[in-house]
Amino acid sequence: MGSGASSLVATPLGYRANVLLPSPADAKYQVCVVYVIKAGGACDLILFDSEKNKDDVKEFEALTAKYDALIVRINPGQLSQGTADGTQKRFDDLMNSYIAKGKLIWSSPKIQMQMGAKDALVNIGKLNCGLMDTYAYYTNDEFISGFKKTCAFQPRVIKQNRGSAGEGIWLCWLWDKAKNEKIEIYPSAALGDKSLGDDDYVKLMEMNDNHVEYHTVKEFTVFCIDGPTGAGAGEWKSTFPGQYLKGGKEVGGQLVDQRLLPRIDEGEVRILMAGDTCQMAIHKKPIGGGLSAVGGMSDYTYYKPTDAKYKGLVQKLYADIPLLLPSLHLGDEPLPLIWTCDYIPKNPDNWPKGPYDRSCPDDQTEYTVGEFNCSCVGISKFQAVCGGEKTLADVPDEDYFDACALTDLMGIKAIEMIKAKKGHA
Ligand SMILES: Nc1ncnc2c1ncn2[C@@H]1O[C@H](COP(=O)(O)OP(=O)(O)O)[C@@H](O)[C@H]1O
Ligand SMILES: [Mg+2]
Hints:
The protein is an alpha+beta fold. About 25% of the residues lie in helices and about 20% in strands. The two termini are about 30 Å apart.
């Protein structure tokens, strides 16, 4: 950490910092991590050393107890990999005890579990951004009978909770095996009217790589429950292990069943948020005729939140915000410091020409949340030099200043939330 003057480097675009800035001498609040320094918070970077904290978290507690807020850059579950048994729980317990003492934790264990999990989509069903007909399954029976009903009515998306980048996200259509074509008229006239049988046939597309496979309903349910080697699973192209319910609800075993939104081929809109404020909208359009909007499978275009294209969407999200955390049973939590909402376009449910029609104008297009990300969302313009030998000094000036627009906003929002928590301006 350099002195104030030597921390800043002159560039044609302005002064930049390549190391942690010195904290203001008169800082009112003590916070962990980099972003808040410019906004007037004092900051330190602190490492959670799993060796020093393998029996209890006393070492880490001694380092962190003095702060008003902690910005945790550890993904949920990461503390269960290669660490002593129970490390994640001990860490989460400490974070929860800090919250009970009035500190702010971004993001808290509860936010990570309840907002970051796929079943959040069920809880937001009644909001503008949700779909009422979204279901979560935690047991084998719930999944088998639920999926047989939903998929008898319309194309669906089955989502596992633990993967990322489209792994275990399955788009499902009924398929006529004999004619080798899509079934246009589904057996069920209304959701719940009829159920598929084990031998009905589905076309499946996995969103990690857009690959397609055809299976019986039975094979699909066996794959989801027991994996590709389960009895009756058939032959699978997917390279992943299935078993999405394994371990039960407590350890994140769940499947979410959402309506397939056919306008996904127009892309997904990622709204990047710092606290209650949108910093950017990113349009992620599937490439190569696929339907996956995950990174690497899609093209990105960046928009300011004020841009006419997504202004309405951003305003709708702002209108949903007061209801968002309460609907996720997180009413007593602060918004995450950095989070994203991924929206998929759709026609209004009463659109006369149905969900596939492309004539619905922009101002009538609705958007549904496909997922929230609220733990460890990357500062993408810094990420290119993350890890390895490179440092912040290797980030090109343009990327640096783009990234700072986000991190500076996070700083402002962090201080705002701390002030609100402490009840003074
Ligand atoms: N309801 C849906 N209708 C159509 N496509 C969807 C739907 N939900 C997800 N997808 C597609 O699957 C991709 C991955 O799903 P997502 O829920 O974002 O999981 P992940 O955590 O793997 O990113 C999305 O980017 C989108 O392309
Ligand atoms: Mg996604």
